[in-house]
Amino acid sequence: MGLLGISFIVASVVYVLVRPPSWLSQRISRWPFLPVAITDVSKEAAIVDSTAPSIPASASSAVQASLSPDSVSNMRSSDLPVIPPPPWSPTNGQPSTPATTPQTDASKSASDTAAMPPPPLPTIIDPPVVERDCESPTTPKASASKPLQAVTSFSLSADPPAPSLFMPPPPKPSPQQTSSAGRVPTLPMFPAANSAQRARGPAPNRAPPGLSPGGGLAPPPTHSSKPQKPSRKVTLDPGHSPLDWARISGPNSDLRGVEPSTPYLRVTPSMLKKQSGRRGKDAWMALNGKVYNVTPYAKFHPGGVPELMRGAARDGTRLFGEVHPWVNYETMLSSCLVGLLVEEPEGGSQASKMDEMD
Ligand code: HEM
Q1: Are the CB atoms for 52 and 115 separated by under 8 Å?
Q2: By its UniProt entry, which PANTHER family does this protein fall under (predicted)?
C-alpha cells in the first residue's frame, strides 16, 4: 500500500516536471538557481521526436525570459521583436502566438515536419463490380455499366448520322408508291356482292337506297296512325268550350229534359224516332244501347250542331265510331242519359200504325 502511494507521488512529480502548468513554468523561469527552464515548446519537440535537433536550452530560456509577463509589461512596443507570419500559417496576417520567437518557430516547424510527415494521400479504389449472377448475402448495389449497344444520338446538324446498330430506316417510297399512297384505302364491300344477304334485297324496314335522305333508316309506314284529314271543327260560341260543358254537366246536374222524378225510360225505336229535335222536341241519340238527350250538348259539340244532328232520333253508334271513336261520350253525356234502347213490343208496332192512321 505504501509502495503504491510512493509510486503515485513519484508519478505526479514526474508529470508536473514533464508538463508543468503555465503558472508553474513562469515561476520556475524566475528561479535564479535553475540554469535551464523547460518550456512547453521545447518539451513538446523533445517528446515528439527525440532524434530531431533540439533547441539549445540557453537560447530557449533566454527567449522565454525575454517574453515573461514582467519583462513584457516593462517593454515598449519598439522593443518587441517583429515576428513575421509563417508562410504555412492558415491565419496569415493574424497575430501569432507570442510565446514563440522566429527562431523557435522555424525550428519547431522543422521538427514537426520531420517528426510527423504529411499523411499519404488517400487512394481511390474503384468499387468492385457486382455481378448479377453472384449470390451475395447482402443487397446487390447498383453499378454503372457500359451499354452493350451503342445509344442512338440525334443531332440537328446537316451531317448524316453515324450508322446505327438498330433496325435500319425503311426504304424511301418509290414514285409509284407515293402516288398510290395518296388514295383513300377502300374497304371490301359488306355484305359481299354474291352473298345471300344481298340476294334477299334490302331490309323490309329500310327504304331502298336513294329514296330516303337518311340512308334508308326511316321508320316503316304504319297503318295505326291517324290519316291526315282537314279539320272539320267549328268555332264555338263564347261560353261553349269543352271546359264550360264539363262545368255545367257535373255529376249532380240533370240535363235529360224530362221530369226529375222520371226514372230511366225503356226507349223503343218508335219512341226514339219521334225525338228528332224538331217541333219543340229534344233530340235523342242512341249509342251502344243507351239513349241520350243531345240537345243540351249541341252548342258545345266541336263538330257543330248539324254534324251532331246527323245521329239524332236514331242509333248513331256506327256514325259516331266513324268520326271519333276515341271520344269518351259516356262521361261527357252522363247527365243527359234518358234510358235504355229496347226492342219494340209485339203489339206495339200495330198500335203505332193505328195511331198513324188516326
Ligand atoms: C253521331 C253523330 C256525330 C257526328 C256526325 C259528329 C261529328 C263530328 C265531327 C265532324 C267532328 C270534327 C272532327 C274533326 O275534324 O276534328 C266532331 C268532333 C267532336 N265530336 Fe262529334 N259528332 C257526333 C256525335 C258526337 C257526340 C255524341 C259527342 C259527344 C258526346 C261528340 C263529341 C265530339 C268531340 C269531343 C269532338 C272533338 C274531337 C276532337 O277534338 O278530336 N260528337 N264530331
Answers
A1: yes
A2: CYTOCHROME B5 REDUCTASE 4 (PTHR46237:SF1), CYTOCHROME B5 REDUCTASE 4 FAMILY MEMBER (PTHR46237)
115 within 8 A of 51, measured Cβ to Cβ: no
Q: What's the ipTM? A: 0.96
Distance, CA 320 to ligand 1 centroid (Å)? 7
Establish whether residue 288 lines the binding site of ligand 1, counting it when its CB lies within 6 angstroms of any ligand atom. Answer: no
**Is the CB of 48 inside a 6 Å radius of any atom of ligand 1?**
no
Integer Cα distance of 96 and 119 in angstroms: 25
Task: Tell whether the torsion through CA atoms of 87, 88, 92 and 93 is positive or negative.
Answer: negative
pLDDT digits (tens, 9 = 90+) for 132-185: 544 555 676 776 766 666 666 666 655 555 555 577 778 776 655 544 445 566
All structural domains of the chain: 242-341 (3.10.120.10)
C-beta of 284 in contact with ligand 1 (< 6 A)? no
Distance between CA 220 and CA 202 in Å, rounded? 13
How many other C-beta atoms can be found within 10 angstroms of the C-beta atom of residue 100?
A: 20
Q: Are 316 and 287 in contact (CB under 8 A)?
A: yes
**295-301 contacts, C-beta under 8 A, 24 or more apart:** 295/257, 296/249, 296/255, 296/257, 296/336, 297/245, 297/249, 297/255, 297/332, 297/333, 297/336, 299/236, 299/237, 299/240, 300/236, 300/240, 300/241, 300/242, 300/244, 300/245
Distance CA(336)–CA(344), nearest Å, equals 23
Q: Which three cell numbers stand for residue 49?
A: 521526436
Would you say the CB of residue 274 lies under 6 angstroms from ligand 1? no
Ligand 1 closest atom vs CA 333? 30
CB 312 within 8 A of CB 294: yes
